[in-house]
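We store amino acids, tokens; thus:
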Amino acid sequence: MSHPGLLEKCKRRRRLEVDRYYQTVLLTLGLKDFFDNEKSTCRFVSAEPTFTETASQKEVFPDVVLEHDNDTQGIICEIKTSLPEVDFFLLEKLKQLELFSGQIEGWETSNRKVNDHSLILLCHALDSDRVVEKINQWVKEGKLKITKKLCIAEWSTIESLKFDQRDVILIRHKSGETNCEWLNTKLHLNIKLGLEELITKYEKCRFTRKEPPLEYTMNQLWSCIFPAIKEETEDFTSNIGEILRIAYDYFIPWSGIRGEYSQVRKRWITKAMNSFCEIDLAEVQSGQESASKTDEEYKIYYGKRIQKDVSDYFVEGLCQKRIEEAGKLPTEETLEEAQRRLAEFG
């Protein structure tokens, strides 16, 4: 069954996800540069460390951690590439803020605690109005329990004469405040991060610890890693272990962030390779006996002439697969659940 409207919607959303993922990599790095250069009482501590929520003993992974007032106060900043359009999924995403509202340990202090901390939700400008509205509604209704100060800020990429016609990431205050007056002032005045400088400085930093869209990983492998395995544009055979070793060499770790680093993961590469198989750009070599998935051999059809931007090719191929799979709905699934699931694919 053909779904032309749904296919176009899916392609638009997936392209957006791919673009925004890389933008959020640069956004995180840009925030580090911003706080390092400001040399204020508020400092960038870490990106994506492991914290522990005291009450539940659950591990939590904030995107950006800041400390101020001689490290007695903290700020956790969550960066959202995009947020679901369906209320059910949006609420599930925002529930993460409840964990960050409790007492958490892992700060860069002698006892791994601070006296108090606040939260920043940094979402894209196209999502921010709805997010503010829904958070206010759900907090009032008791569906969302946030006990710390919450500041909602928005980010977007712009090109403007005001900024010398250079692309910048613009961060603007939207709602609420943090527990740091200096940072509140900066957010109200807008924070500007130069994209060109960040791309040049961090050219091989392409991943955060958050799992990227499949198409993004596929694009990085196709453009950066596969040429290092086979210089000619011909078909070749490789395995996850070899691809991973080259990727570790190519995608350099972030330096200077409390020993933490963000780099491509083995499971992302495995998913990407399986997706290449789904759209007929690779296949598992039959008859290959291996002790582990790391050694599984793939024939990669790198010599295939793709008559469009490869990223668009991956997006279109996987969107068609998603729609086909979404159409195979379980008989016990209600119409409302089915519509919600289809909408989420879009």
User: Anything to note?
Assistant: The chain has eleven helices and 13 strands.
